[in-house]
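Catalogue entry: protein

Sequence with per-residue tokens
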Amino acid sequence: MADDLAQRAIAMTLINIGELTTLLSDEFKEQYRHIPWMKIKGLRNIIAHRYEIIDFEDVWETAITSIPELEKYLLEI
């Protein structure tokens, strides 16, 4: 949490993940609707456009909890 560069790197990675979801078809997202596509994109939008309201503890929690879960789902696909 004290490393500003690490915080920005994590935030940028979450932006990239959210942006990449826009490349997926609606059919694909519907087929795998247990993945929270709207939340992923929503977090991307908050980080990209509302940087001043970001709670980096929440970002960190997302990075260590939700991203490994997402990776597991995607590897299964």
